[in-house]
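yo, Ion transporter is done. seq:
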Amino acid sequence: MNAADKDGLPDRSAMAQLRDRLRKLYHGRTPAAFRFQLVAVVIDLAIIAFFIATPVLQDTPSFLWLDYAVAALVAVDMIARLLASNDMLRLMKQPTSWVDAFILLTLLMPTALANLGFLRILRLWSLSRSGSLWRHFEMRGVKKWREASQAVINLLTFLFVITGFVYTFFFRTAAGLEGYIDALYFTVATVTTTGFGDIVLPGIAGKLTAIATMIIGISLFVRLAQALFRPTKVFFPCPQCGLQRHEPDAVYCKACGHLLKIPDDGN
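structure:
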C-alpha cells in the first residue's frame, strides 16, 4: 500500500462515518433520530411560512439576508439527504429532488427569478412526500389519516401556488399585504366556485387563469372528499419490494406477489 492510499484511508473512513450518522438521523427510529426529524420538520414549516410571507417581506431591508439564510438551510438539507441515501442517483431522479433544486435556484437568484418565486411553496408538497414526516404517525388510529392529510396538503399547496401566481402577474401594483390578501381571496372564491365577482382578473389571461383554477381546484376538493369518506388504500411497506400502498383486504402484494401481513387496526 502506497502513501497516497494510507493518506486517503482516514478521509474515506470519515466520510463513511458521516454518511452512517446521517442515515441514522434521517431514517432511524431511535429517540435521538425522532428528535432530529421533528426539528427538521419544524424548520421546514418555518421555511414554508417564509415562502408564504415573501410577497409581504420582499420590500423590507432584511429580506435578502433572510432569503440567503433560507438558501443555506435548503442547500445543507439537500446535501445531507443525498449523503444519507443508499442510492444517490435514484434520489436525484425523484421529482421532490427536482423541486428542491428549483427552490434553491430561486433563493440564490431572488431578483432574476422573482416572477417564479411563488413556486417555492411546492416545498410543502415535497415535505408531504417525505417519509420522515409520516414515519412516527404510523401508530394505531393515526396512520389511516395519512391519505386524507396528503390530500389536504395538496389542496393547500395548490391554493398558495395559485395565490402567488395571481399576486405576481395581476396584483403586483397593489404590493404588500393588501394585494396578497386580494389574490388569496380571488383564489379561494374561484376554487370554491363561489364567484362573488367583486375581484375579477382582467383580459384573456385572467379568464384562462380562473378556468384552470376552478377545474383543478374542484378536482382536488373531490380527491379530498374521497380520502376523507372513502379511503381506498392502506400504507404498509411490502417486505419484498417496498410498495407502500395496498388495498385494505390485500393478502399478496400486487407488485411482487409477496405474502403480506397487514395489521388489523380493529384488533
